Amino acid sequence: MEFRSARRAILQLLRTMAPADLPPLLEWMRTTRDFDEFTQDNNDSMLKNIAEDLRNCLPLETMLSSEHVALQKIQLRPEPTVHVDAFLYDEDFIDSLCEEGKMSRNYCMMCGSHQIAPLGFISHSFSLMELKFIYRHVLPDLSEKLLVDVGSRLGTVLYGGYLYSSALQLYGVELNGDFCQLQEMIIKKYQFTDRIKVLHADICTQDLLLQNADVVIMNNVFEYFLDEEKQARAWEYMSHNVRKQGSLLVTVPSLKESLSSLQVNIQLSSWVEEVPLNYDAYPEKGIDREDLEQIHLYKIL
């Protein structure tokens, strides 16, 4: 059946509905995930197009010169480490870059060049696979919900939320003005402005937004961008303001790991309850289970 015939058949079917049953049917059509199998390829393709647009705007390492603290912390890691954005560069893409000599997975343990031992890779973005896992297997239906991404960076959580969820509003809070401009460019180009809003701000000024959020997502948000004293203050702020009972908090890594080296007075047992995740529920091939296991879900008490 071609498009016009299918559209005509659907409209005719809707006209046969009992008036009382039509509103709930239309609401179901607007919010259901039952159509995912028909739209998945298009959504995936759109995110891949967004990744290509962003790659064309950024250096290979996807780090900006203005990210002084993050650059210093990466350099101080015990093993040579490079930042490779997981949203922009999947494993196949990295392999092709290595074959072209534009990237290496290894370094020389004697002189520091990229030749012998494996390099450490770190990413501040979720991969496409991780985004789909979060929105399809970690979070519930987000209809009428407000989601906040803390440190939205390239905006990947926001774009994934727009395409893979029914969230009413998706807010990104980003301190770096350059990244805010990139997000605004993508939002306008792909016409996401009806549900996505990016705030150029310090998250520690957004108490009302956090207090009203139904879902808060934090991916490596403080560790590489703040010194330990500022990290501690930021986490104290989060624990005081992410308090909406029943709301959800998604973190990478776990809260326990994030807070383990900080001097904070946060009692996790009175703030959150961790929700077990089934990491085997994700059917996609080529996903690294270890990456999924870094994702943690908490319910606010």
Question: Can you walk me through this structure?
Answer:
It is a single chain. This protein is an alpha/beta fold and 301 residues long. The chain has helices at 3-15, 22-31, 36-55, 68-75, 91-99, 128-138, 156-164, 177-189, 207-212, 228-241, 255-259, 268-271, 289-292, and strands spanning 81-83, 106-107, 117-118, 120-122, 146-150, 169-174, 196-200, 215-219, 248-252, 272-275, 296-300. The strands form three sheets. The chain has a seven-stranded mixed sheet. It has a two-stranded parallel sheet with strand order 1-4. A two-stranded antiparallel ribbon has the order 2-3. α8 (177-189) links the parallel β6 and β7. The longest helix is centred in the first third of the chain and has 20 residues, at 36-55. Residues 106-110 and 114-120 have low confidence and may be disordered.
Structure described in brief:
With 301 residues, the protein is α/β, with parallel strands linked by helices. The chain has helices spanning 3-15, 22-31, 36-55, 68-75, 91-99, 128-138, 156-164, 177-189, 207-212, 228-241, 255-259, 268-271, 289-292; strands spanning 81-83, 106-107, 117-118, 120-122, 146-150, 169-174, 196-200, 215-219, 248-252, 272-275, 296-300.
